[in-house]
Backbone:
């Protein structure tokens, strides 16, 4: 067919016209292929959900592609659950819990070609392993042991404290961007909802004792405060039997309730941070509140995610005006902060080579924001973003690790399996009007917080 079109284009002397038809055909074919790929990926897995009597939630995602299983356990606690004056305890506990039987377990995993890791976020601590399916029982044994108890070796405790302090130095103390972000968050949010990074303040990390970690473990590590996600090639009945064997006898606990209201967000905050570097890039971050929480309205959250992705397209007029046309901004980005705090936020970040270039961008920004509120997003760009979003979701569901992270994050945020499985349909059906209405709601208001990073030696007067 392509050869026929090529011959006709030259025979009729209409090369440009026919070539456009060829490219248009190829583009439509590529879109169709991607959508078919997404549908096929969707059909290749099966989700089974059950809950033990002690409250442990288990999500089994059967995907018979290779004899591998990805196990992850998500505890419904994180940096937001650190006690006052004890920031970093959740992260420290993750380090110590990961060291539990570290040599024995890690050496075993290395011997069979498996791997494991862990991480801490504001609202979760997660441990995970990728393992050949015939060894899954060993994972259940070690993870159930980690849930039940925590042990402390003084040498390991001090070694991990040193590693954590070094991690803090790398991410905050010796990184101007990290230090600016830390100053911003601590001035805008309460410590319980992101005002302090999960690593914690240096002086509070230094004061942490084994008893603090034990208290956190005793309070938050419980079957009724955890979700297991298992993805890969497994026998479902065997998985049910093994989970009951290793986790079923662990007693549930009374989990404390944490409030997430941000009392600091009642009035406008402007934070200025002086970079320690001479002639460094200047930047400004505008933080806008959304009129809803993604935990309350998933469809609005998906629509705003689609809108933000559209605004991040290189040809979008705000980015093009500030970056390409005037050549004043080195980067312009919109970031949707959702599912982490008590309310969602949009962060607009602009970087420039100098403070003067940044001022030019800021002077132009109000008129561009007004245009954004009036015009909204482009229909063509919106459809392109939705197509890419669906492909991204398809790829996530084609890999057992990505799929487990995808389900795990959304489950820990409070969504049901049914809601998660509807996301693809939501993305497909999001309209320009929905995106435009949300843009109007968010950007018709003034930002409630601003961070300015200024070069060293700049006269702030």
Residues:
């Amino acid at each position: 067919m392509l050869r026929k079109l090529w011959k006709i284009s030259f025979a009729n002397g209409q090369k440009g016209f026919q070539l456009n038809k060829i490219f248009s055909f190829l583009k439509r074919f590529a879109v169709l292929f991607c959508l078919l790929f997404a549908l096929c990926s969707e059909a290749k897995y099966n989700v089974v959900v059950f809950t033990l009597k002690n409250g442990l939630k288990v999500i089994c995602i059967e995907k018979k592609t290779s004899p591998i299983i990805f196990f992850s356990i998500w505890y419904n606690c994180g940096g937001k659950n650190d006690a006052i004056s004890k920031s970093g305890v959740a992260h420290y506990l993750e380090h110590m819990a990961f060291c539990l039987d570290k040599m024995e377990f890690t050496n075993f995993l290395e011997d069979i070609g498996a791997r494991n890791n862990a991480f801490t976020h504001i609202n979760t601590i997660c441990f995970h392993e990728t393992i050949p399916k015939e060894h899954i029982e060993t994972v259940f044994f070690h993870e159930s042991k980690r849930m039940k108890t925590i042990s402390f070796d003084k040498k390991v405790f001090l070694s991990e404290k040193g590693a954590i302090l070094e991690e803090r130095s790398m991410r905050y103390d010796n990184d101007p961007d990290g230090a600016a972000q830390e100053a911003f968050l601590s001035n805008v949010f309460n410590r319980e909802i992101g005002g302090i990074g999960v690593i914690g303040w240096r002086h509070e990390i230094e004061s942490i004792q084994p008893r603090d970690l034990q208290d956190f473990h005793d309070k938050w590590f419980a079957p009724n405060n955890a979700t297991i996600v298992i993805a890969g090639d497994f026998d479902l009945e065997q998985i049910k039997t093994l989970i009951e064997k290793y986790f079923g006898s662990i007693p549930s606990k009374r989990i404390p309730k944490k409030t997430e209201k941000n009392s600091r967000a009642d009035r406008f905050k402007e934070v200025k941070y002086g970079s320690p570097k001479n002639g460094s890039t200047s930047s400004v971050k505008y933080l806008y509140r959304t009129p809803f929480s993604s935990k309350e309205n998933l469809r609005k959250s998906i629509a705003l995610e689609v809108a933000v992705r559209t605004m991040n397209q290189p040809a979008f007029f705000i980015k093009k005006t500030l970056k390409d046309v005037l050549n004043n901004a080195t980067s312009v980005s919109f970031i949707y902060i959702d599912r982490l705090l008590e309310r969602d936020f949009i962060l607009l970040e602009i970087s420039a080579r100098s403070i003067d270039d940044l001022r030019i961008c800021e002077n132009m920004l109000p008129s561009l924001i007004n245009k954004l509120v009036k015009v909204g997003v482009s229909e063509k760009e919106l459809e392109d973003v939705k197509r890419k979003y669906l492909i991204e979701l398809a790829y996530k569901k084609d890999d057992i690790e990505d799929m487990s992270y995808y389900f795990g994050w959304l489950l820990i945020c409070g969504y049901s399996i049914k809601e998660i499985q509807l996301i693809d349909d939501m993305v497909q059906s999001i309209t320009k009007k929905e995106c435009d209405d949300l843009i109007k709601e968010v950007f018709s208001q003034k930002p409630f917080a601003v961070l300015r990073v200024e070069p060293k030696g700049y006269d702030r007067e």
The longest helix spans residues 15-43.
